[in-house]
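Input.
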Amino acid sequence: MPSAVVWQLLSVRIFSHWPYWPNILRTSTSHQEGCRREWAVSVTQFTGGYDAQVQKAHLVRLDWQRPENGAPAVMAEITGSDFSIDVDLVLLAMGFVHVEHSRLLEDLGVSLDQRGNILTDNNCQTTADGIFAAGDAQTGASLVVGSINQGRLAAQAIDRYLK
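Output.
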């Protein structure tokens, strides 16, 4: 049986307010089973073979830089710190990120609310006739049970719309 290496790439934050975990090192049984942890790194690109299968993740180490003008600290690349790891699967766990503001939404005439989520009425219909949204796209990142409920409400609203 081939061995597997699990990588967890994290970025340490200065502030630990909700929804972020406090800056405490936690080790779970999953970590103990073979996880290598790296903090303060950023993926610069993925490369692979001709079949579009990802084979390498190219990364660079980061360091907090506090501007002299008192602006909030920002993470900056450490020159010469780039490295790569062999990968065959990449899972992007971004969490608490609003819906992608794509050309599709713009072309359909779908409006966004002040938080960057898809604007809907009480029937889950967007500002574009016949286009509905539910879950995180409508409310922002939240619990999955809320998204399931929103999906059911949207399905009922779509059914009424089609009748």
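The first strand starts at residue 6 and ends at 10.
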